[in-house]
Structures are given as C-alpha cells and as structure tokens.
Write the structure tokens for this entry.
Amino acid sequence: NAGVTQTPKFQVLKTGQSMTLQCAQDMNHEYMSWYRQDPGMGLRLIHYSVGAGITDQGEVPNGYNVSRSTTEDFPLRLLSAAPSQTSVYFCASSPSTAGYGYTFGSGTRLTVV
Amino acid sequence: DAKTTQPPSMDCAEGRAANLPCNHSTISGNEYVYWYRQIHSQGPQYIIHGLKNNETNEMASLIITEDRKSSTLILPHATLRDTAVYYCIVRVTGANNLFFGTGTRLTVIP
C-alpha cells in the first residue's frame, strides 16, 4: 500500500512549455484533489474530482487541466507554463464517506524559468 | 465552508502539552473540525477530526466547546518532531475539498 504517489518530485520548465504532473493512489479513494502551495502560504485548491469521469474547478484553476479516467490516477496538466506557476504541488485523496481525512502525496516542486 | 482563525505561531517546551486553539464561530451543524499538520515541506498529514464530542487518537486529542465555536488540539507530550504548521479546517461531511488558511506554526523548544 503506497498511498498517494506523485511524480516527478522536482521539475524545471521553461516559460511556455507544457507538462503533466502525475498522481496515483492505491487506496480506492473516490475523491482526489490538486493543491498548490506558494512560499509562506497555505494550500490552495486547483482542481478536484469526486470520481472517475468527474472533475471540477477549485480556487485557482486557470492554466491547469485535469482528467480522471480511472479511480487511481488524477494527472494535472500545465498547458503553457508561466513563472507564476512556480510552486509546490500536492495531490490528495480521500474516501467519500464521512470520518476520513485526506491523504497527501509528498509533492512536486516546480520551477518555471 | 466556515472560516477558521488560528494564532500565527506558538512555542512549547519539549515534553509539555501543546494546546493549539482554533476559532470557527460561523461553523454550521453539519461541519466537522479537522486538524492537519505540515512538517517542513512535506505533504500535510491528517491528525484528527470531530463533530461535537471530544476525540482522542494516538497522535492527539481534540476538545470542541459545547457551542462548537472553537476547538483546541492537544499534543500531550510534545517532541521536537512535532515542530510543524498546524491547520484547523472545517469541512462538511463528504465535501470534496479543503480550504487551508495559514495555520499555526508550532515550535517545540528543547
């Protein structure tokens, strides 16, 4: 049981490049979310999903796309990277039933130059 | 989701109890109180949650006031490894997102 796995752990992109941050969980959780954390700040929600085939926007969705084709995977795509997207990205998952907290991945540290 | 207010920072002596307060005066009846912590740059870690009764697990205790407008997370014997940012979040059961504030930075002092 690996929990929530994020890849890569570190990435440097040039402005305008695109890339996909991977997130996979092996706990059969229905809910999955992507957050970004800027220095000295709390986490902000980018996109989330309540199940395969269902996604929705969070607080800061601009510049990002997501899809949820399987329960296990929830990739985050940066369409055209900008320096403002330099951040640490966390993926999280949770069962849909009450009484459980979210399990977070270890994060992807992205720098856009 | 209701908003929460936490002090920005606190210190605690190693071995003593750390009591972290949280104000959630606008909490509604179907919202739970959740606590997470983030150690250095790691992903947040779930600690405990509760609705209206006090809760205890192997990591901490959660005390919720009778009117549910505030709560306290208690780490009974703080260690240096408990130094972290602690987030108090209110969340409707089954809600699919969390709203993090800036939390309380707890420093455990040797």
Q: What stands out?
A: Chain A is about 0% helix and 50% strand.
